[in-house]
Design goal:
The chain is α/β, with parallel strands linked by helices. Helix 3 (80-89) packs across helix 5 (149-159). The strands form 4 sheets. Strands 1, 2, 3, 4, 5, 6 and 7 form a 7-stranded mixed sheet that branches. The protein has 3 domains: 4-146, Alpha-D-Glucose-1,6-Bisphosphate, subunit A, domain 3 (Alpha-D-Glucose-1,6-Bisphosphate, Chain A, domain 3), CATH 3.40.120.10; 168-356, Alpha-D-Glucose-1,6-Bisphosphate, subunit A, domain 3 (Alpha-D-Glucose-1,6-Bisphosphate, Chain A, domain 3), CATH 3.40.120.10; 365-450, 2-Layer Sandwich (TATA-Binding Protein). The protein has helices at residues 22-37, 54-67, 80-89, 122-132, 149-159, 182-188, 218-227, 254-268, 282-290, 302-312, 336-349, 379-392, 432-450, and strands at 12-15, 43-48, 71-77, 94-98, 107-114, 117-118, 143-145, 168-172, 192-196, 231-235, 242-246, 251-252, 273-277, 294-298, 316-318, 324-326, 365-366, 370-373, 397-398, 403-407, 410-416, 422-429. It has 13 helices and 22 strands.
């Protein structure tokens, strides 16, 4: 009845009506509730996004949770960061968010939390096994509705942001859950805001809600140009990933956004550590060091980065995908609404346009993420062989997540996706010719291994 493929590395996600039904959400509620109860945990903050299936899924998930003896606080239809905030604000043991993030409208899913730590990897598989074995706790939980935590979230951000002058921006909510929050927060902070697609609509009628992909930013780019705004701010479907467009209509990638935030952080916190994933540019890691910080390269994945930061006491981190984590003046989770405000705060103090913030860095040529389809059962074994091949030949290898090989004039990456049956490649170098050479080297390794 339950499709194991929907239980992924960082969350549970699938197609509504086939992978996920009301009955399956009820079972997932029982599985998660049992997992919590056996850890001495009980209270759960529950939110959901604007997808059409979310209200029914929330109802059945809640029923399953309560039948294990868990107490549920329903915070309504909200952004994922609001759910994270509610765990802290309401002091619940755990949290759950019915969402499929930036997936198309036919999808839905659940993100699960144990405190502010993501439930992921083997923990999600443990919940799956409880469901498969029908090994459930029983009890009678309570149910409460909380309608004020959203306002507490908004007030908390406003109190923690200091805008020096009115900044003119465009906000593209992508018809996701960030639209009801970011424009009103920025206006209360004194900014001039133009909104596009800020009404939540689970059908995503205007464009796919992923601000890290150039083609989905066309409306935002056009509106920045039309209004002569200083920047455009985009968010994904559940508002935990950020995208930025500069005043010239160019897209800033996740590592560039993190780079700008890291410079600001290191100015006030010299010597601090900044964490970034293996897909990020060499410029970012070099720049962190140049600004007196300690750069650490870590595994891709919002749960991996968030939990490593919490374990090591690191206050700033992020990844190429637009997840940015700020424990500096904030609570450490990925929140595109808050990160957008911090970005605007920096803008309000700068005497140059966004397009010039990183203009002092060397020009690098890089590819986007490149994917090669491979069997799900083989992907990690293939990557391990690529890693070993580069090591055997004496290359400068970082194997924290697949293999990232560093050269004097660039780098190449090969890793297995944690969520789909593909290998992920990315290449960067000081010249386009060298970037292509590095890509050929990697693809040659892969061809030799796969025959």
């Amino acid at each position: 009845m339950v499709n194991p493929q929907t239980f992924r590395q960082y969350d549970i996600r699938g197609v509504v009506g086939t992978d996920l039904t009301d009955g399956i959400l009820y079972l997932i509620g029982k599985g998660f509730g049992t997992w919590l109860r056996r850890r001495g945990l009980k209270s759960v903050s529950l939110g959901g996004d604007a997808r059409l299936s979310t209200p029914s899924f929330k109802e059945h998930f809640t029923k399953g949770l309560m039948e294990t003896g868990c107490d549920v606080i329903d915070i309504g239809i909200v952004a994922t960061p609001v759910m994270y905030f509610s765990i802290w604000a309401l002091k619940t043991d755990a949290g759950a968010m019915i969402t499929a993030s930036h997936n198309p409208s036919e999808y839905n899913g659940i993100k699960l939390n144990n405190g502010l730590a993501s439930v992921y990897g083997s923990e999600i598989k443990d919940i799956l096994k409880l469901i498969q074995d029908e090994d459930f706790e029983s009890g009678e939980g309570t149910f409460l509705v909380n309608e004020v935590v959203e306002q507490r979230y908004i007030d908390y951000i406003i109190a923690n942001i200091d805008i020096q002058r009115p900044v003119k921006v465009v906000v593209d909510g992508g018809n996701g859950m960030g639209g009801p929050y970011l424009p009103q927060i920025l206006r209360k902070l004194g900014c001039e805001v133009t909104e596009i697609f800020c009404d939540p609509d689970g059908r995503f009628p205007n464009h796919h809600p992923d601000p890290t992909v150039l083609k989905y930013n066309k409306h935002l780019i056009d509106k920045v140009e039309e209004t002569q705004a200083e920047a455009g701010l985009g968010m994904d479907g559940d508002a935990d990933r950020i995208g930025v467009i500069d005043e010239e209509g160019n897209m800033l990638y996740g590592d560039q956004i993190l780079n700008i935030l890291a410079r600001d952080y290191l100015e006030k916190n010299p010597g601090a550590t900044v964490l970034a994933d293996v897909k990020c540019s060499k410029n970012l890691f070099d720049d962190i060091a140049a600004y007196g910080g300690k750069p650490i390269m870590y595994k891709t994945g919002h749960a991996n980065i968030k939990n490593e930061m919490r374990n090591k006491g690191i206050k700033v981190g992020g990844e190429m995908s637009g997840h940015v984590f700020l424990g500096d003046r904030y609570l450490g989770f990925d929140d595109a609404i808050y990160v957008s405000c911090r970005f605007v705060e920096i803008m309000s103090r700068m005497d140059k346009p966004v397009s010039q913030y990183l203009a002092d860095q060397p020009k690098m040529y890089n590819t986007p993420e490149l994917h090669v389809d491979v069997p799900e059962s083989d992907k990690f074994a293939i990557v391990n062989k690529v890693v070993q091949s580069f090591k055997d030949e004496g290359y400068n290898v970082n194997d924290i997540d697949g293999v990232r090989v560093t050269f004097e004039d660039g780098w190449g990456l090969c890793r297995a996706s944690n969520t789909t049956p593909v290998l992920v490649f990315r290449f960067e170098a000081t010249t386009e010719k060298r970037m292509i050479e590095i890509e050929k080297l990697f693809r040659g390794k892969l061809a030799g291994i796969m025959g």
